[in-house]
Amino acid sequence: MSQELVTIETDTKLMTLDEFLDWYPDGYGRFELHNGEIIEMQPTGTHERVTSFLALKQGIEIERLALPYFVARQCVVKPSDSDKSCYIPDVIILDEKALENEPLWKKRSLITKGESARLVIEVVSTNWQDDYLMKLGEYEKMGIPEYWIVDYLGLGGRRYIGNPKQPTISVYQMVDGEYMVRQFRDNEQIESAIFPELNLMAKQIFKIGQ
After folding, report:
1. What is the mean pLDDT of each run of 10 residues along the chain (210 residues)?
2. Domain ranges in the chain?
3. Contacts 24+ apart (CB under 8 A), 63-67
4. N or C, which terminus of the chain has less Cβ within 10 Å?
């Protein structure tokens, strides 16, 4: 188990996004809104190690290439067709210039446009359906150009990572308006359209998650 989710009971009706953002406790915990329900994310130490390693690697590449991007510590992503959901990715790379067109970025750290994010990474936990089903579909609909699902424990469904299950990194890249996926395991070097010179093998990530 890499991360547990707990639904927070509230005394009111299902929350809207604005209500959720007003409620969000400053500096405490990590929460998402799923169809009006507050979900508390409770990552384990291993999950945090993997997430931090990935953020570090991306940050080094941004600095090396002097790109106008940065790794956001806590960015809220609003799906295209809902005012009752929002996600906070494990790692998200934002485009500084594109954020000028985000009306709520400065006030809420919230993005609504796919072009504002260059790369989103979700590190899989026991709620793997959220990453492979819900978030995959929403990020694709938004037009986020690249999305990684880092399944370092091989928890995802067999239809996503094969049979037998094994640790897998699925890299979804936008091609003609839809995601195409490539998967990486063991000694394979991850190929990223955003960072074409990235020197990172799948086994390096899996080792951190042991």
Report:
1. 47 81 80 92 88 96 97 93 91 97 94 97 91 95 98 95 96 97 97 96 92
2. 43-208
3. 65/195, 65/197
4. C
Closest by CA to 3, choosing from 47, 39, 53, is 47
CATH fit for domain 43-208, picks 3.40.50.1100, 3.40.50.720, 3.90.79.10, 3.90.1570.10: 3.90.1570.10
Burial status of residue 140 (CB atoms within 10 A of its CB: 0-12, 13-18, 19 or more)? middle
pTM: 0.91
Residues 118, 130, 183, 60, CA torsion sign: positive
Which run of H or E residues covers position 136?
Answer: helix 136-142
Which helix (H) or strand (E) element contains residue 170? strand 168-175
User: Rounded to whole angstroms, how far apart are CA atoms 167 and 161?
Assistant: 8
